[in-house]
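Sequence in, structure out. Go.
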Amino acid sequence: MPPLLACLPGSSLVKFSARAMQTTTQQHYPKHYCGVFGIFGHPNAAELAYYGLYALQHRGQESAGIVTCHDGRFYKHHGMGLVPQIFNGEILHGLVGDRAIGHTRYSTTGSSSLRNAQPLTVDCARGQIAVAHNGNLTNAAVLRDELENRGLVFQTTVDSEIIIMMLAQPEMGGVQNSLVRTLRRIEGAYSLVIMTERELIGARDPHGFRPLSIGRTANGAWVLSSETTAFDLIHAQFVRDVLPGEIVIINEKGLTSIQAFPEQTKRAFCIFEYVYFARPDSVINGHTVYEVRKEMGRQLAREHNVKADIIIPVPDSGVCAAMGYSEESGIPYEMAFIRNHYVGRSFLQPTQLIRDFNVRVKLNLIESLVKDKRVVIVDDSIVRGTTARSRVKTLKDAGAREVHVAVSCPPHMHPCVYGIDFPDRSKLMAANNTVDEIRQYLNADSLHYLTLEGMVAATGQKRDAFCLACYNGKYPVPYDPLLDKHIIERRRKQTLTLGEAMIKEDAQIKLPEL
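Output:
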């Protein structure tokens, strides 16, 4: 086995500052989690990492960062906001080196703040380490307690810092630490891209919740990415997916593969990647997301034969499924809703007036296409129902004779604890209402969800390959029912301050007499 961290200790970490941009949005759809990217052996590593993150922007819009390595020194820049807001030519030219890792973030664990932006870095006895993480650790609070009891001090409130702190320890419990040992301690969902002073490392959890792929550029540089769409942008060729439980170590000698979990583990890839999160032009597990979504639409039309005049999608999430629905049903497809692609994030507080305005300003309806028509509107999911209700109202106000809502996945009944920021059950529409009650709330003439069987069939893969917990409540990895994205902040607030702890000490501290 190659050395995990073959690096030179004692190098300095050079940081560049970025303007922080705090934004406020109203959640109508499930929010994205994160995108990770890494490249090894390219003279323009920072620039390619920038374009890689640009291609992964859909996976997280709260913050982004890039860390490079050159002659044993790490160079880092991160900030709040979108990738082009954080980086420019001058900054990228300062990120020197032929290897880099990058991260786009949505806060699935830890609040949205600059201190939680990734990649995270540490300078320790093993040398410098940088980590970018996509996913959620279900035993984060337990591990953090353990590390803090050993005297470690954390700088962030993200579970990803637990990983980098464990890697930085020369030994844990008297046993020589390694990446394999660390991965066997952490539980939940993770796709990791790790950089040391000599290596680029990729790893996936044994269930394979989150995607991670390997590519190669024309000059032979190795690339790791959450989605293959990043390879297309930088003209890299897809090589293969990192397997569940696999560690790939890339250095000057090439790529070495290690299976950290040789025992058989149930696969649990997040099916919502196909439904919503991944870009349509990405290929996951050998299946193009675009084609899978179209097949979901076809399957939806087979299961629910609605008499209508036109099929319209909710851009952009419902486009592929609506096309498939139209092809299968023979009902004409129309882009009646036009999306404004230049609507940025709102800096205004989310009052009801602003929420309603934001819903309308992002999509504008061509009224002549729906007037006096029976309309089927196709979307990928209904979470709280507020946005779907607004769409139905807009269509009926424009003169649509009937509005039928078709959803290309089953009802979301349970929260996700593996990295998708679904609300808890109290805020999930389908967890607290029947389909007909939801239909009445939407004021729709009919409401149809794709069945679980139909959704899985559309992927062309077996049911036991997926995590379906948000639909059926069967969680592949046990979790703390109190787990949410602010668990660490909540835990810290419950901790006594230093002064309070001293007051509660059984023995009084006696000062020497003067």
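Check: The first strand starts at residue 13 and ends at 16. The chain has two domains: 13-265, 291-462.
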